[in-house]
Amino acid sequence: MRGEKIDAPPDHVYLEYVKNNILAAAVKDAKKQGVEWVETTVREGDPAEEITAFARDGDFDMLVIGSRGLGSVKGLLLGSVSSKVCHLTDRTCVTVK
Predict the structure, then answer these.
(1) What mean pLDDT is reported for the chain?
(2) Which terminal CB of the chain, N or C, has fewer other CB atoms within 10 Å?
């Protein structure tokens, strides 16, 4: 049996998977719902910091971010991306369930 060598680091392989599969499915879903224009991006780093930097760099007026609903205790222990985004950004931030 012969294995396939992967030269890329695991993080890169994961990001490529996200870019090629998950985002493609999201774009397809959005277009199916009637959205005419969709732009996607994949960034590496702390999610909350990257989201707020992207919003600032793109000069967006408002962020809409989902909540996973971990609950207050688990959310406090693990930290919440949506909560951190709301605290870091100077933009209007709406969290939805």
Answers:
(1) 83
(2) N
Q: Is 28 exposed, middle or buried (0-12, 13-18, 19+ CB in 10 A)?
A: exposed
6: pLDDT strictly greater than 70: no
72 and 28 share a domain? no
By mean pLDDT, which of 5-9, 30-34, 78-82 is the weakest? Answer: 5-9
Q: Are residues 49 and 84 in the same domain?
A: yes
Do 55 and 26 share a structural domain?
no
Does residue 2 lie within any of the structural domains?
A: no
Mean predicted confidence (pLDDT) in 25-42: 92
